[in-house]
Amino acid sequence: MSNGCICCTLREDLLKEVERLALDGSFDYILIESTGIGEPVPVAQTFTYIDEELGIDLTKFTRLDTMVTVVDAAQFWRDFYSKETLRDRGQEAGEDDVRGIVHLLTDQVEFCDVLILNKCDLVSEDELIKLEKALHAMQPEARLIRTTHGQIDPREILNTGRFDFEKASQSAGWIRELMKEEHTPETEEYGIHSFVYHRKRPFHPERLLRWIAKWPESIVRSKGLMWLATRNHMAVSFSHAGTSKQLGPAGLWVGAMSEEERQMHFGDTLPPIPDWDEQWGDRVTKLVFIGIDMDRAEIERTLDETLLTEEEMLMNWRELKDPFPAWS
């Protein structure tokens, strides 16, 4: 598939063609090679959800067996820390495609069950091990396979039975860290490890932005929710990979919902919410940091300095300066 936008221009063709091939009965296995700019989730959804508009349900006669991502061992870090977009490289799927290289690369690594490290002959053994450990931290469930010139035993990627949509959706390293009840940081060889920053106090927006501007280079990947004092009703999602950092609305805190809104979302019974606070409800900051030779103590210390002080906790938070853009 040469077009990366599977969700719009190619999905219908893919559905129809796979259905035709499956019903023909001549093939036992279909190997779909997507373009390097293709997003994995829409492809997986094609095989796991019914298309009511077309009346096609591929789950009746097909199963998605394996999701494979190929990583260029010699190019990975260059792409990961690139500020380029697909448009900059002339690889955009359409006029509205503004995706960054690092965003696509991260999506492909975090949603797969087999990771092939190709071009291993172009990097040293130490570099390979470091890359493997970083990829494992980002996607701990995927099987890592080294290759040169793309040579691989077909049995490594065909009929593996590894793929499970729900499991794949929850298998990224940052998700697994957030789901742990307790996190014991493990410092691995080559200094690659992760930890969760968990605080029940809001950030001061100006100080937080200054901290982000001085982002520690040792952090490779981070993601989670933030509590921002000036957006007290709204959870803030944060995602970082390479040089890219994105903040945006993630929905209302349950503690900020009216009784009518809670009834609409949860019915008569509010489910148990971990760390519920009588004053602040479920408002919390939980950020996963994955990195190389990170100084956890320094990261936590400097981040703590961006939280509201005791005096600021008593102020009208709406009066605080907020340099972040407004969200519709």
> Beta-sheet strand percentage?
15-25%
First-to-last CA distance? 35 Å
Poorly predicted regions: 1-7, 183-187
> Approximately how much helix is present in the residues?
25-40%
Instruction: Give the integer mean of the pLDDT values.
Output: 86
Number of domains: 2
Q: Tally the helices.
A: 11
Instruction: Briefly note the structural class of the backbone.
Output: alpha/beta
Major pleated sheet: 5 strands, antiparallel
| Major sheet: arrangement of strands | 4-8-5-6-7
Secondary-structure element order, N to C: HHEHHEHEHHEHEEEHEHH
The CATH superfamily of the largest domain is known as P-loop containing nucleotide triphosphate hydrolases
Q: Gyration radius, to the nearest Å?
A: 22 Å
CATH overall fold name of the largest domain: Rossmann fold
**How many strand units?**
8
Shape: globular
User: Could you say what the CATH architecture of the largest domain is?
Assistant: 3-Layer(aba) Sandwich
The first-level CATH class of the largest domain is given as: Alpha Beta
Describe the structure concisely.
The protein has 328 residues and is of the alpha/beta class. The chain contains 11 helices and 8 strands. The protein has a 5-stranded antiparallel β-sheet.
Description:
With about 325 residues, the chain is α/β, with parallel strands linked by helices. It folds into two domains: about 170 residues, P-loop containing nucleotide triphosphate hydrolases (Rossmann fold, 3-Layer(aba) Sandwich), CATH 3.40.50; about 130 residues, Hypothetical Protein Yjia, Chain: A,domain 2, CATH 3.30.1220. The strands form two sheets. A five-stranded antiparallel sheet has the order 4-8-5-6-7. Strands 1-2-3 form a three-stranded parallel sheet, with helices on one face. Helix 1 packs across helix 2. The longest helix is centred in the first third of the chain and has 19 residues. Keywords: Chaperone, Hydrolase, Nucleotide-binding. It holds the Pfam family CobW_C. InterPro entries: CobW-likC_sf, CobW-like_C, CobW/HypB/UreG_nucleotide-bd, P-loop_NTPase, Zn_Chap_cDPG_Synth. This is CobW C-terminal domain-containing protein. It catalyses: GTP + H2O = GDP + phosphate + H(+).
